[in-house]
Amino acid sequence: MRCKRLYLVSAVLSMFFSGATHAALIGVQDYGDYFTDTSNGLDWYDVTLTVNRSYDDISTKFDLNEEFAGWRYATAQELAQMVNSTTGIATGVTGAGQNYAGENEQFYELTELLGSTIDSYAQALTGFSYDEIFGLTAPANFDFTYGLLADPFSVGTRFAGQILDNDAAAVNADGFQILNQFREDLPDLMIGSYLVRSTIQQPPQTIQEPGIFALFGLGLIGLLFFTGDKKRAASLRSGKY
Questions:
Q1: 197 and 41 Cβ atoms separated by less than 8 Å
Q2: What is the rounded distance in angstroms from the CA atom of residue 147 to the CA atom of residue 60?
Q3: What mean pLDDT is predicted for residues 14-28?
Q4: Could you tell me which of 112, 110, 116 has the C-alpha nearest to residue 84?
C-alpha cells in the first residue's frame, strides 16, 4: 500500500498545522497490502495492486501456489457490508445496482486503505498523483477506489464498486456506488479488483494419541499373524502379555 510511517507523519503534521483530523474507521486493522474488517471477518486486498488486470486474468490466480492463493472476488453484498460497518454510515447500499451520496470523511480513510485507483492511474501516466497534477491540497483532495466484483452484470461483464472522496468540487460529493459494468477480458489502468479472504484459519487436523496407539496395536497384531506367531497375537487381543 503506502509507507505507514510517512502516512502517520503526514497525519500528525496535518493536525498540527490545520487542526483537521480524519474520522477513524471502525474495526479495521491495517497490514500494509491488505486490511482486516474485524466486524465481518474478512481481509481486503489493496485494490491498486490489481489495476490494469482483467477479471479473466485475476480469476485464474486463486489456486494453491498461484499469485492470489487464498483470495477470491468479493461480492457486492460483502463490499456494501464492509463500507457500512467500517465507516459507521447507514448508506442504504446492500448490493449491486445501488448508490449513496453524502459528505463523509470516512470515505477518504477508506480510499487510503484500499488504495486510490485514480492516483495509481495518474502515476502510471505521469509519475504524479491526481492531486499533484491539478495542484489539489488537503482538505481539497480527490480520490476514489474503483474495483471489479464477483457479481455478473451481463454476459462477459461484471459489476464494479466505487468509493469516492471528492472534496475538490465546489459542492463536495463523496459517495459509494455499485453500478457500472466492465468487461471481464479487458484490463483498465483505473480499475482494480476487490479481493477478499476469510480471517478465520482452520486448525490443522491431528490424530489423538489414543487413536495412534490403537492403530499401532492393530498393525502389530497383523504383523504377528503374518509371521506365524498366532498365539502371541491372540494374547495381545485379549490383553494378556
A1: no
A2: 17
A3: 54
A4: 110
